Amino acid sequence: MEADKLKDEIFIQNCPIRNILSRISDKWSILTIFTLEQIPVMRFGELQRTIPDISQKMLTVTLRTLEQDGIVKRQVYAQIPPKVEYSLTPRGLSLLPHLNSLIYWAKDQMDSIMKDRKRNESKD
């Protein structure tokens, strides 16, 4: 019953759940979270080198969004030159099993999805 109610709520335009899902499910957020799972503490440049196809601007926006939502912690050290490190918060760590399930599902379905895409492209 509760699950049905939640599913109904996500169709409401200003649903907070819908908003949260849109912020954590974009490709850059997922890649950033998985990168911080692999290397728990990283600086901006390290993140950018590890995710080479992300622009500086997009990485900045992604990190700010994840920080605002309490998924990523930004640690600023008072030194010269400035040092800033990023890591997953307990909330970010709690998200990992759910994202991992999605990744495993995608991996399991990848071949059949690619075949379906190819078949449907040939119909156009």
UniProtKB/TrEMBL annotation:
Residues 15-114 form the HTH hxlR-type domain. Gene3D superfamilies: Winged helix-like DNA-binding domain superfamily/Winged helix DNA-binding domain. The keyword DNA-binding applies. InterPro entries: HTH_HxlR, WH-like_DNA-bd_sf, WH_DNA-bd_sf. Keywords: DNA-binding, Transcription, Transcription regulation. GO terms for molecular function: DNA binding. PROSITE patterns: HTH_HXLR. Pfam families: HxlR. The keyword Plastid does not apply. PANTHER family: TRANSCRIPTIONAL REGULATOR, MARR FAMILY, TRANSCRIPTIONAL REGULATORY PROTEIN. This is Transcriptional regulator.
